[in-house]
Amino acid sequence: GENVEQHPSTLSVQEGDSAVIKCTYSDSASNYFPWYKQELGKRPQLIIDIRSNVGEKKDQRIAVTLNKTAKHFSLHITETQPEDSAVYFCAAVLIQGAQKLVFGQGTRLTINP
Amino acid sequence: DSGVTQTPKHLITATGQRVTLRCSPRSGDLSVYWYQQSLDQGLQFLIQYYNGEERAKGNILERFSAQQFPDLHSELNLSSLELGDSALYFCASSVVGITGNEQFFGPGTRLTVL
To answer: How far is residue A91's CA from residue A101's CA, in Å, rounded to a whole number?
Structure first.
């Protein structure tokens, strides 16, 4: 089955700097890669996603890149702000399959003022 | 607010007991997923139902079971509870189709087993 590895487990950056979180997946058939943000004690919320027919997607300060050959994808947050502090989870799924999300272990991002 | 509701919000019980967690998906969503999130752990997929039928199973213990009813709400039953079952249990729902699979998560049920 699918296995997703996420790095780093913790990340601390200065406000205004960029943050990058990386994930690798094992099942080459996976074709949908969402990123979720989870604030303490709250539900995971989708912040951006990418499908396997696209190499990069941007939404304001957030971007995701996908390298299908290497089976890895990354989340990029630019001009970080204190409200970006949270735990971020990547996931991989095969849309045509059971569609169960396989999550990475999570990255605790801290933005230092 | 994602449109997914879960009850109860908090649940405190003792080892050996049985509890039922309830989830109502977003209007129109046929698929319901259950996830377990232990302290400082990631999200572990437990089970998925689609339109009343079990679709996929993950790391779900035999002591746990679930079902989805005709009105599409779902219940997760946890029995013979152990201390290690203490966790946040999330339900998510989605429209299953070829165009995508955004899963909308409920607020979770925090289960504490004493």
So the answer is: 6
3-state percent helix, strand, coil for chain B, nearest multiple of 5: 5, 55, 45
- pLDDT single digits (tens) B7-20: 999 999 999 999 99
Inter-chain residue contact B42 with A98, CB threshold 8 Å: no
Q: Could you say which of B35, B42, B48 has the minimum Cβ distance to residue A105?
A: B42
Measured at the CA of B68, the angle between CA B65 and CA B71, to 5 degrees, comes to 155
The Cα–Cα gap between A104 and A90 comes to 5
From the list A42, A89, A100, the residue facing B33 with the nearest CB is: A100
Residues of A in contact with B102 (CB under 8 A): 34, 46, 49
pLDDT one-digit tens code per residue, B21-73 = 999 999 989 889 999 998 766 889 899 998 999 988 888 999 999 999 999 99
* A82 upstream amide cis, omega within 30 of 0: no
Q: Is the pLDDT of residue B113 over 50?
A: yes
Cβ B14 vs Cβ B46: under 8 Å: no
CA distance, residue B33 to nearest chain A CA (Å): 8
Residues in CB range of B75: below 8 A, 6 or more apart: B20, B21, B22, B23, B66, B67, B69
Is B56–A101 a contact, with Cβ atoms under 8 angstroms apart? Answer: no
